[in-house]
Amino acid sequence: MDGNILDPDGARERLAAWKGRIDKLAADTQTMSDRLQEVRVTASDPNGLAEVTIDSTGALVGLQLTSRIQRMAPDAVAQAIMATLGDAKNKLADQSQAIIADTVGTESPAARAIADSVERHLRTGPAPEPAASYAEDDDEGYEINTHRERW
């Protein structure tokens, strides 16, 4: 009728609409949670030394190293793994943000809080460049190039 709070029919309609929005938000939030929990990301370093796999929390669940690590200094291998892990976490943050936007949107304070939490927890900034890379060498197969800056 005129939107008066004392109007029982109008009040029921407003309550039903409010309940519908709450039910949709709850369903969307559950869908978001389910999709976020399923995400796994795999990333490889550009020099082909390591491949890492992380779960939806950013925890390392898989690490594959190639035989190329035998020709590298341990510090370079460690840096390659850490840089690749950072790259995987950034990719996970991107995928998580897309899931949040697709399911609950980006307009509500709750959605923004979830998105901000994902960013703080996962985002590592741009992946640092490896401290050393290798190039083919005619004599011994590979040589280490250490001309890049350390991070």
List its traits:
rod-shaped, 5 strands, 151 residues, 3 helices, alpha+beta, disordered C terminus
Would you give an account of this structure?
With 151 residues, the protein is of the alpha+beta class. Helices cover 50% and strands 17% of the residues. The strands form 2 sheets. A 3-stranded antiparallel sheet has the order 1-2-3, with helices on one face. Strands 4-5 form a two-stranded antiparallel ribbon. It is rod-shaped.
Break the fold down into its secondary structure elements and pairings.
Elements: H1 8-38, E1 41-44, E2 50-54, E3 60-65, H2 74-103, H3 109-122, E4 133-137, E5 141-145
Antiparallel strand pairs: 1-2, 2-3, 4-5
Helix pairs in contact: 1-2, 2-3
Class by SSE composition: alpha+beta
Strand and helix order = HEEEHHEE
What separation lies between the terminal Cα atoms?
A: 67 Å
Sum up the overall morphology in one term.
Answer: rod-shaped
Q: Main sheet, how many strands, which sense, barrel?
A: 3 strands, antiparallel
Strand content: 15-25%
Quote the average pLDDT: 82
Radius of gyration: 24 Å
Number of separate strands: 5
Estimated helix fraction:
40-55%
List segments where confidence is low: pLDDT < 50 over at least 5 consecutive residues: 127-151
Strand order of the largest sheet: 1-2-3
Task: Give the helix tally.
Answer: 3
